[in-house]
Specification:
nine-stranded antiparallel beta sheet; six-stranded antiparallel barrel; 16% helix
Amino acid sequence: MKANVVLSVLALCSATACFGEVEDRGDAEKRSEPARRTAATLHRSISEEIKALGNHPWAGQYYFGDGLGVNVSLTLAPESGYLFEWHGCLGLYDRNYGAVTWKKDRLRLSFTFPNERKGFQGIAEEFIPVAWGDRKYLIPANDIVRFCNRVNDGFEPRKGMHGFYLLRDGDEKKEVKGFPSVPEEFRPYLLARPIEAKIISVGQSTTHPSVCDWKFKLTPVTLNCGKNKGLLKGMELHVVDPEDVVESVEVTKVGAETSEATMTQIGENQAGPRNGWRLSTRFRWHPDQSP
């Protein structure tokens, strides 16, 4: 449940330990008044360039988040550079700005302040622009597979502004058909029909720490399908039976007829998974969608 866990964790605005991660990093400079003024001036400059460019392949103002602890904006243009800000329940969590470099079909950001992707801070250094009809997304270069997972499970194309990936402002209102234009090597990850599987064995669980005062629980499982059904490493499948379970697994190893996967849960005392649980690449509770 990688992507679901990330937004759920970051939205826990009452988690004091998480807030400590924001406040104790010694990076007050990026939230200072001089940085605020620079950011405001830069935003105006970038916005004017965006307007002059018209329908540019990637310039624009983008957003992802949940409307609570995660509200990430990225505004960028070829000449003026970019402005990144992360706002949440306590105000501004992070800010950075600098130049944008376009090379080999991807964007690279340079950073004025230290950029650490942890807790409520940081942003990817490289993005791949992905068009989907008239929509424009910016996907971290190392996260294309998970973006495909969000297409497969029904969270993209989203109908509102909130979501897991940077989408150009206003594009959530645009209808799409077919698949997004991900790089060719990732196209097999986009599924015309959902893949369904069953857990046939459960391994020993382990735990690892989080940025808060609780742990993640990781449990390896074996699935009853593999390459024969189109599964690929990195794909995610959601539990559809039992119906009261909201969990998912990420495929870690694919064989001809079986696959290995891992279920990640918040809290080391969580129950599950169990033999016989049914899974699908389509999230059963997504609005207007079914596995």
